[in-house]
TrEMBL record:
Protein name (record): Nucleoside 2-deoxyribosyltransferase
Top-level taxon of origin: Bacteria
Organism name: Tumebacillus algifaecis
Organism classification: Bacteria, Bacillati, Bacillota, Bacilli, Bacillales
Amino acid sequence: MSDQEQQQETGQLKTCFVVMPISDADGYLPGHFTRVYNHIIKPACKEAGFEAFRADDVKQTNMIILDILQRIVAADLVVCDLSSKNPNVMYELGIRQAFNLPVVLLKDTSTDRIFDISSLRDVGYDESLRIDTVQAAVVALSESIRETWVNRDTDTHSLIRLLGIDAATLPEKTQIGADTRLILEELSALRSTINNSSKPIGATRMNASRTVLENLDDSFTKNKIMQIKNSVGSNVIHPHFGFGRIIGLDGDDVAIVRLENGETRRIHPPYDGLIHIIDASDK
């Protein structure tokens, strides 16, 4: 059964992670690369039977750099737009090529070829994005995607095969420690709170150069209660309620937190992801 027949039977599209400039770049109109993504890359991927997505498509899931790197390796295919020679794009392309996984290179006609990868094919498109050139670019890119996928096991996706060295491999299973997992979860909750907050966070409140986030230990109840007692008067942030200050205890273990909006919340153990904000100058 062909890939296309399997796809029609399962109803699932293959994944294509798109590596490209996301922010505006010098020499391009605002929103240029978003238009390239929406009008060239996504239609070409769909035409070739792939679902295209890039990092900002999944920002609501608190994607962090680790997630991006995992998706670069895990995606069935990667389309990489070299236009403007963005350093982040080059870095992410290097990771994909280290594993010698299928990748399709794309660049506009105003970007010079890059010497180190000049031996690899790329698909060109007119940076003007004129309507009479966009459709031609979609056709050319979709054809390259199909060809790359069909020849994924034999084609040269990087210099790895040309140099005759082994491609990088992932370990069979990577275990993340409980402490690391907890920190990542709390950072994700913090990012969500910041993104959803209606009030801007001033530099005095969240200065990255002088602020340390200390996660309240979840290991043992006694330790947590002791940390709460020692944190009375300290600023905290909660993934659902936002910023506040611990003003006291209700009984022996219930933290009383006064929020920015004046509300008072009683937070019971295990304190629901409460994060203690410690000024580095206090340490």
